[in-house]
User: Fold this.
Amino acid sequence: MAVNFKLPEIYEGNGPVSLDAWENRRQEILDILRENVYGFSPKAPDKVTAQVVSEESVLANKAIQRSVNISFDTPGGVFTFPVVLTIPKHVEKPAVFLLINFSPNLPDKYYPQEEVVDAGYACARVYYQDITSDNNDMTNGLAGMYSAENRPDNGWGKISMWAFALSRVMDYLETLDEIDKEKVIVIGHSRLGKTALWTVAQDSRFAMACSNNAGCSGDALSRMNAQFDKAENINIIYNRFPFWFCKNYSKYIDNEEALPCDQHFLVGAIAPRPVAVGSADEDLWAYPASELECCRAASKIYERLGIHGLIYPEDAPLPELGSNLDGGNIAYHLRAGAHFLSRTDWNAYIRFADKKLK
Ligand code: GCU
Assistant:
């Protein structure tokens, strides 16, 4: 697709880029995203403790399910949140899908736990509002603990808070012998897809991100969404959900051109690690063509690092429904239907994880 906007460069010039040079630039990119979009988070706590609340055999004895409370010190006192870990018994040191989800309970429409276990993965799930509420209230949960009511203009929004908590889950997973801590994948849908990308971009202990239908301020280009009247743009998202972002993000309302980044910085900041983006053809709000274009723009840094990003011709339109473009290190799939984290999406992510991590 021909694009008629100019994107900021992830990395100036054209030649090969060394991993060291990229790591320097990647840190700059993360700071640009913090300053302008998601806000700066506090520094990680020195210590995280985990208390096992219960442990049982589940899924016809195929897996162990463990409920754990994770705690750490904050300026407001000790903060604790639950995570549920399900570990297949028949796999030695499985990779882990860490799902940040909309529901605390099972069964859940977005979480095919048994299929994930049968595919040979452990799963960990966090209910996002156990971290902090999904609204303007900056006094509860992690927001309250760090007095986010008084946050500066570049102080963290809720997406950064959810991401911060997922890094604390990683602190815990790192202590376990039963799983492969080098192979932890963060997965999320929509606002939580935005969160999955931001988590993995900032915390290089994670091996991969899966961003499902994340759209505006996630895996779609803001400059491209601004040109399509059916898609969400910064004006709409900031006015409905200002608390997801830092206050500085409001500077770019109807002013995307002024952004020193675009969302290819977010996807690209995951390089050289693999990242998967999933679109749904009816989800014009997120805007599949813009999600594809974002993957393409992010690909450039992978190519310059000497590995493939998205493998798909530069000028080709959206791929056929049902295709998985997962030959490189950026995977993109387009599924039929509406905004949802479906079994089709999970299968695409599992297949990509099999290729990249097994
Ligand atoms: C709204 C919002 C999107 C978001 C979605 C979701 O539609 O506008 O940006 O991705 O909610 O999280 O479900």
